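Aim 2 progress update. The chain analyzed this quarter is reproduced below.
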Amino acid sequence: MLTFAKVHFLGAAGTVTGSKFLLEAYGKKILIDCGMFQGLKELRELNWVALPVDVKKIDAVLLTHGHLDHVGFLPRLYKQGFRGRIIGTTPTLAIAKIILNDSAKIYEEEAQKAAKENYSKHNPVLPFYTITEAEKTITLFESVAEGEWVSFSDKISYRFQYNGHIIGATFIELDINEKIFVFSGDVGRVNDYLLAPPKKPEWADYLFLESTYGHKLHPKENIEEILSKLIKETIQNKGNLIIPSFAVERLQMLMYVLWKLYKKNTIPNIPIFVDSPMGNNVLEVFKRYPQWHKLPMNEYEAMCNHINIIESYRETWETIDNPRSKIIIAGSGMVTGGRVLTYLQQMINDPTTTILLLGYQAAGTRGRQLQEGCHEIKFFGRYFPVKARVKRIESLSAHADQQDLLDWLSEIKNIPEEVFLIHGEQTALDAFRLKIQKEKNWNVCIPKLHAIKELMI
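Predicted structure tokens:
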């Protein structure tokens, strides 16, 4: 008698964000990741729609890592009735806790601001989730060790394997009746400032593979040279360098690179301000889990002492009013919200301001608009003219590029029965499908959102 597992593609199918894959097998229901959609309005609106499955019957959520597009839907899942276990590595759960608490606070503040200033179409204006809902969700967290098989039932076991990308990140292997399902999560880079190279899967009967940069190679850029040039130009122009940054990994990496440049006398002693409450908390995670990264603790302490960590909104405004040229690193990385908007509100119409974008900017985000040269940008309910110059560094991305991904597959000993390309925009998905078919002659599928696949086990 044939037995099948069923996979529901509830997110990150045909798009990069919203990672959610529901796996049903032998009476168990396991959700791999539970992320928010980001970017285009039609995607963001999906966040407000209940999942088309019985959430109360999901046994557990396995988290590949702590980014918002992999964990940010968890409090909504809780609100819809989920009470199972939320399982991940210890640093992943620490990051997820920070992100959920911080984003809940931002949602509540933004809802209050929108209601007070009457710039939302919705009445009443509700936060996506509340601090209370985030806190209740966090009570379901359960940590597991990296690299060890864990029994889920008599027919199912799983393992988390180190994957670079951000602290705590893993790919997930599920053994279902001796068929291996591999969910890549987000694959990291081989040469990373802070993290070791990812481990590689050795067997995959069914492979669910990220494709964010499946269509391109990261440029060979001299990061330190580009940064030092921009900083010297900023000082010469008596302006400010604003760097919207993701709070997890990118911010810590950037701090480390700037510290290195200062230590080598490559840049002058320009004030550096980090304004990201979430990013500050993530720094503590680096301190608590030194075995998960390459940054020596003495370097960590020196870096933190050199950089001004902003801890209050009052300090944000003191930094804005400071007439000296400075570097400001603030969340969020795709300019979708956070403290960076407060700085842009004051400085984006000044030609002496430089905005430096790092890494992937999803379609529909303000970061993508700036990257594509928009002349004005909307936030806080009004349009702001963009007179600042906009620069970009692509090679600081925490995602593997096409060659990195092919290398990551290089130790798989078998021919997978099927490969599902996920976490990509259509151009990247199509290009990567053709590349894998040409190089490996594997059976590759690009699933659509809400598709359901039956896989023989």
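The mean pLDDT is 94. The two ends are 11 Å apart (CA to CA). These observations will guide the mutagenesis experiments scheduled for the next reporting period.
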